[in-house]
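Subject: L,D-TPase catalytic domain-containing protein

B.,
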Amino acid sequence: MRFISISFIISLVLMSAAVFADERANAANKMLVKQLRLIHLVEPKAKYQHQLTQLTYGKPTKETLEKIEFDIANFWAQRHIAIRDTNTTNINDPLIRAMALEPKMDNYLQLQNRISHLRWLAEHQQWTPIYIEGLIRPGMSHKSLLAIADRLMLLGDGVASAQSAESLDDRLVNGVRRFQRRHGLNPDGIIGPETLKWINVDPMERARILAKSFVQKAEFMSQRAEQFLVINIPAYEMELISQGKVELESRVIVGKPYRQTPLLSSAISNVVINPSWRVPKKILFNDLLPQVRIDGNYIEQREFDVFDREGNQVVRSAQQWRDLAAGPFPFRFVQRPGVNNTLGRYKFYFPNDYSVYLHDTSDPKLFNKSYRALSSGCIRIENVEGLANWMAANLVKDKQTWVDRHIDRNKTQWFALNSTLNVHLVYWTAWIDKDNLAQFRNDIYQKQSINDASDPSVAHINNL
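Prediction pasted inline below.
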C-alpha cells in the first residue's frame, strides 16, 4: 500500500488554488473587456483602446487593473449612474471587483448581449451596401432579395429559410414589417429607400448608436424626480412617468428639421382649455401671409383676429388684406378658440426661451404618419385627453370650473396647478424596449455623428 506524502497533497492544493485564481482572473478580465467595449463605443478615447489592448493581449499588473477599474467607475460616476458596489478597495478577488463595477441600469444585460451580437456580425459577416432601383413590393422578384433576407435573419427580423428567397413572399414581408417597426418606419412591407438605408447600416455603427443613446437615457433617468413627462423627439413619443412606471403614453408631432423642437427641461405650470393662438412672427410671415396673398378670405375662414401694434383690432376687406400682405405687414394674428383653432382643445404651458409648449391639434390624421417632424417647433399630443384628464385628477386646483369649462368650446380658461409637472424634451435615437428588442430611429435633426474619423480607435475597436 502506497502512501501519498503531505508535500504532494499540499502541491495539489496549491496548484488547484492557482488554477482557480487564474480562472477568476480570466473571468474578471472578460467582464472588464465587455464594459470597456461599451464605454469605448460611447466615448471613443485612446485610453480605453489602450486598456482593451492590455486586457486582451497581455497579463495586466495589479497597478494596471486598479487604473482600469478606477476609470470604469469614474465613467459611470460622471454620468450619475450607480454601480453595484463602490466599496471594493479591500477585496482581493478580481472577479468580485469586476462584478461590482457593473452599472445598475435597466436592460443592461440585454444591451451587452445585443452589442456582443453586433460585434460578432461585424467580425464574421460582410456588410457591403445593397443597392436597388425603385421599390420592391410584396410579390415582386428581385436579385437583391436573397441578400436582404440574409440581413433580416442576422438582425433577428427574418426567417431561417432566407436562402430560398426568390420573391418578396408573405414570410419575407413579415420580416420586413418587423424590421420597419423596429426602426420607426411605416410597416407596409415595401422595401424602399428608408428601409434599405437601415438594412445597410453596418453592425458596428448600430452598436455605437445603441450604446450612446442607451447610456444617455440611463444618465437622464438616474437624475429624475418621481414624476415627470418626457418627450423623445426622434421617436415622436411622449411618456408620463410616475414612481418609475409609465402611466400614460402618446404619439406626438414635433418640429420640422428647419424649425426644430429644442432640447430643454422645464415644468408645466398651467393648463389652458380652449386656448387662443397668438401666431409667432416667423409662422405669420413664412406660412400665413403667403396664404393671405392668394386669398384674402383666409383670415376670416381660419377665424383670425388682426391687431395693430397698439393692440387695436383691425378690420379690412378680403382684397385689402391681400394688398396689405404683399408689403410690410405691421399687424399680428390671434386665432380665436374653437373647433378650428390650431392648438385644439388644450395647451400645456411651461416657461422656456423658445415659445414652445404642448398642445392638442385640429388635424389628428397626421398622427398616423410614420414621419411626424411636421410642426413649427411645438409638440402636438395625440392622447391629449388622457394627459388633460390626468392633470385634472392630480394637479388642477379648481376641478369644478374645469368640468364647467368643457361645456363652452369657445371660452378660454387658464388653470393653476397644485404643483408643477417637470417636462423634458430629449433626443434618443435607440433603446431596448419592453420586449427586449433594439429600437432605432432616424436622426431627424442630424445631431449625432456616428463615424468619428478623427479618432482611429473607433475603427480599431472592432479588433479587440
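Confidence is low (pLDDT under 50) at residues 450-463.

T.
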